Amino acid sequence: MEKFISHSGTGVPLRRSNVDTDQIIPAVYLKRVTRTGFEDGLFAAWRSDPDFVLNQPQYKAGTILVAGVDFGTGSSREHAVWALQNYGFKVVISSRFADIFRGNSLKGGLLTVILPQSEIEGLWTAIETDPNTSIEVDLQSREVRYNGKKVGFELDDYTRWRLMEGLDDIGLTLRKIDEVEKFEKNRAVYKPKTLPILS
Amino acid sequence: MGKALAEKVWNDHIVRQNAGEPDLLYIDLHLIHEVTSPQAFDGLRLSGRTVRRPELTLATEDHNVPTIDIDKPIADPVSRLQVDTLRKNCAEFGIRIHSLGDVEQGIVHVVGPQLGITQPGMTIVCGDSHTSTHGAFGALAFGIGTSEVEHVLATQTLPLNRPKMMAINVEGTLKPGVTSKDIILAVIAKISTGGGQGYILEYRGSAIRQLSMEARMTICNMSIEAGARAGLIAPDEITFEYIKGRPHAPKGKEWDAALAYWKTLQSDSDAKFDKEITLNADELSPFVTWGTNPGQGVPLNAAVPIPSEIEDEQERVAAQNALTYMDLKAGTPMKAIKIDTVFLGSCTNGRIEDLRSAAEIIKGKRIAGDTRMLVVPGSARVRLQAEAEGLDRVFLDAGAEWRSAGCSMCLGMNPDQLKPGERAASTSNRNFEGRQGKGGRTHLVSPLVAAATAIKGTLASPADL
Ligand code: SF4
C-alpha cells in the first residue's frame, strides 16, 4: 500500500446525502475479478446526466470528493472504494460514513475524513465559488486546509500510523502469528468444521 | 458490572489486545461467495500466502447465478468467469464449495444455518453485509470487505475496534398477519438508516422470544439497514432445537459441552447498554417502504408522507428525491399503489417458513392479471423441501414463476431484474435506487404482504383479500 502523509488537490462537491454503495457502484459492475477498471461503474446511474458533477469540466481534475451525510451506506462491497480510487479520488470528506465503507476505505488507503456538516457546507461553497480552490488534507497534523482556513479532524493513532507507514494489516498480523497458534490450541473441540463434508 | 451478550462473545475471541490498537479477534467461520472473493485470493497468490484454516471456510455460489436453466453453462460470460474463478480458487486452496446444481448450494446466509454450521457464540464473517443474519443464533456475525476477506483467509483473524452496544427491546405479542419483517422495518424507520452506526444491536424482549429461528434471522439480517454491522439474539431452547440433529451440529458429549456453553450466552441482568430503545409489538401492523432507503417506511394502512411536513432539511430533500425516483405523489394511500412484480426470496425472506406462509395466502387463488410473481427459494434444500410439501404447485397454479436458488432479484446481478420504471413489492432488504435493476422501484414488504399484493395487484395485506 502507498504511504499517505498528505494530499493536495481540488475538490468535487457531491451535494447528496445517503449515497449508498449501489449508487457508488451498481451490482452489474461487480463482475470483474481484478482490482482495477471499476472507474466506469462509479456513480453509473448518474453519469449519463450532463449536469452531474463528475461531468462538469471544472471538476474533472478533482481528487477530493466532498459528499453529504451518510456516505457509503449499504453493502460491504470494497469495489466502492476501488471505483473511487480507480477514478482518481484520494480523499472523501463527509460528516458521516457507513462503518463498513469507512473500514474498507482506510484499509485500502482511501482517506475518509469526517468533518461537521457546517464545515462540509463551507467546503462546498468554496469549491463551487472557485473550482480551482486548492485543498490540502494533511494526515500528519490531522488537518484540512484551504483558503487559509484550517479544520482539524480526528483519526485514531493506530490507523493514522498504518496509513502513514503504508502498512498492510495482513503483514502486521502475520508477524505475531504465534499468538494465533496459541489461541487455536485452546479452542473448544465442539466448534464446527466445514471439512470433512457431513450430511 | 455485568456483560452484554456481544461483549461476552467478543471477549472469548480475543487473540491479542493492546491499548490504542484494534483487538485481534479469532474467526470461527468464514463464508465466501463469488463476488467479493476473487481479489482476495489474488492477493494471497501475489504475496505467496495460503489459506490458514480451509476447514473453517465454506464457499457457495449465490449472487450471480441464474435461477433457470441451471444445468446449462451460465450464459453471461462475465458472471461465468466470476463463478469459474471461485471454483478454481477453492480447488487450489482446498476450500469446500457448493456449486450450482449441488444440493447444498444457495444463498450463503441460508446455507450456514441449514447445515448447522452456524452456532451460538461463534464469530462468523463473510464478504457480504447481510452476514448479520447469523446473529439470530447468538453468534457475532458481520459483513467485511475484500481486504478483510484476504486477512481472514491468511490469518483466520481480524483486527477490529470494539463497537458500542444497543438494546432493542420488543415487548408484547404480534397480531396475526404481522411478522418479524414488520418489526425490523419499524425499528429502522424509528432509528433511521444511520441510527445503528457504531453499534451492535441486541434484539430482546418477550416478542423476540416467541419468534421462530427463521423469523429471528429476518430481523438480524436487516441490522445493517439500520447502519449496524451486527445484530444478535440470545440463544434459547428454540435455537438449540433448531440446531440439534443438523449435519454439523455437535453430537454426544460434544453436544453436552456446547450446550452448557451456549446456555451462558445471554446479557447479564445488570449489563449496561450504551443505548436502549423499546417497541411495543402489540401496536405493530404490516409495514412497507415508500422511498429509496429502508428507513423510509410506513404502516401499510398509512399514506405516502408529505415531504413539506418533514422538519429536518436533509430528510426533507431526501424524501423529495425519493418520491421523484419512486414516481409517487405525497398523500397517496400505500394500498392504492399498483405493483408490477412481486419478488419472494432473498436471505431476508427466502426460507421454508417464508414460502409456507406466502403459499398459505395464495393457495387456490390467482395472481392479478398484469402482475408477475417470482418465487426464488433461498437454497436448493429449501426448494426441495418446498416441492416435497407441494408449495411449488401452489405458486405455479396461481400463475407465479418457480425458480432455483440464488440471490436473484434481490440485487439483480443475474438476469432477474426490474425494467426501468417497473415497480416491485419485494421481500428482500434494500430499496435503493436501481438495486433490483436500473430504474426499477422497490417497496420492501413481508412475505404475507407480498402474497396478498400478488393477488390484489396493489399493495395489500392478507386481511384485504
Ligand atoms: S439475497 Fe440479497 S442481501 Fe442476501 S446475500 Fe444475496 S444479494 Fe445479499
Q: What would your notes on this structure say?
A:
The complex is a heterodimer of chains A (199) and B (465). With 199 residues, chain A is an alpha/beta fold. Chain A contains eight helices and eight strands. Chain B has helices at 5-11, 38-46, 77-93, 108-115, 146-155, 180-191, 206-209, 213-221, 237-243, 252-262, 313-326, 346-349, 352-362, 380-388, 391-398, 447-456, and strands at 14-16, 23-26, 29-32, 57-60, 96-98, 123-126, 140-143, 157-160, 164-171, 199-204, 230-232, 275-280, 287-289, 297-299, 341-344, 372-375, 401-402, 423-426, 441-444. In chain B, helix 2 packs across helix 5 (146-155), helix 6 (180-191) packs parallel to helix 8 and helix 13 (352-362) packs across helix 15 (391-398). The model of chain B has no long low-confidence stretch (mean pLDDT 96). Classes of the chains: A alpha/beta (199), B alpha/beta (465). Chains A and B meet through helix 4, helix 7 and helix 8 of A and helix 2, helix 3, helix 5, helix 10 and helix 11 of B. Bound molecules: iron/sulfur cluster.
Write the layout of secondary structure elements.
The complex is a heterodimer of chains A (about 200) and B (about 475).
Chain A: E1 6-9, E2 11-14, H1 21-24, H2 44-47, E3 64-67, H3 79-87, E4 91-94, H4 99-108, E5 111-114, H5 117-129, E6 135-138, E7 143-146, E8 149-152, H6 157-165, H7 169-174, H8 177-185
Parallel strand pairs in A: 2-3, 3-4, 4-5
Antiparallel strand pairs in A: 1-6, 6-7, 7-8
Chain B: H1 5-11, E1 14-16, E2 23-26, E3 29-32, H2 38-46, E4 57-60, H3 77-93, E5 96-98, H4 108-115, E6 123-126, E7 140-143, H5 146-155, E8 157-160, E9 164-171, H6 180-191, E10 199-204, H7 206-209, H8 213-221, E11 230-232, H9 237-243, H10 252-262, E12 275-280, E13 287-289, E14 297-299, H11 313-326, E15 341-344, H12 346-349, H13 352-362, E16 372-375, H14 380-388, H15 391-398, E17 401-402, E18 423-426, E19 441-444, H16 447-456
Helix pairs in contact in B: 2-5, 6-8, 13-15, 13-16
The structure holds iron/sulfur cluster.
